């Protein structure tokens, strides 16, 4: 019985999920179907940490960053503050990479090695690779959105290369942060 109670307990990330539901409704009514599609994707994303029962801090950061990224797009913040787009790419990609590593670790696709130093180097590499892949998928999504949904979505060679560079940098930093966590990596504990 206590386990069921713990499963139903609200966590800070649930506030973000509620905001994502509200954002979906507001986005559709205020900005139209393209914004609705964006907020629908965000809603799906913010559900992932709850489903995976990720630590509360990661849940909150992950969901908040996705929601911020979507609202920044809709409210024109990227045009008003040009560096914000690059920061969002770094933070979101890093967090997506961390969640990807956790999924792979829990699914036993990655294993904590007997050699912590090599395991840490591998963790940085795989986190960077997951981040690079997610950055590429993100940029493909931007291109598809620009080409088929809304020409106002900013794409172009310089924008894409900068977004990829910052996304990869964020993933590499996230990998270094994961590797630095002795309690989570190299001692046999689940991430």
UniProtKB/TrEMBL annotation:
<protein>
    <recommendedName>
        <fullName>Membrane protein DUF2238</fullName>
    </recommendedName>
</protein>
<feature type="transmembrane region" description="Helical">
    <location>
        <begin position="83"/>
        <end position="103"/>
    </location>
</feature>
<keyword id="KW-0472">Membrane</keyword>
<keyword id="KW-1133">Transmembrane helix</keyword>
<dbReference type="Pfam" id="PF09997">
    <property type="entry name" value="DUF2238"/>
</dbReference>
<keyword id="KW-0812">Transmembrane</keyword>
<feature type="transmembrane region" description="Helical">
    <location>
        <begin position="123"/>
        <end position="141"/>
    </location>
</feature>
<feature type="transmembrane region" description="Helical">
    <location>
        <begin position="20"/>
        <end position="44"/>
    </location>
</feature>
<feature type="transmembrane region" description="Helical">
    <location>
        <begin position="161"/>
        <end position="180"/>
    </location>
</feature>
<dbReference type="InterPro" id="IPR014509">
    <property type="entry name" value="YjdF-like"/>
</dbReference>
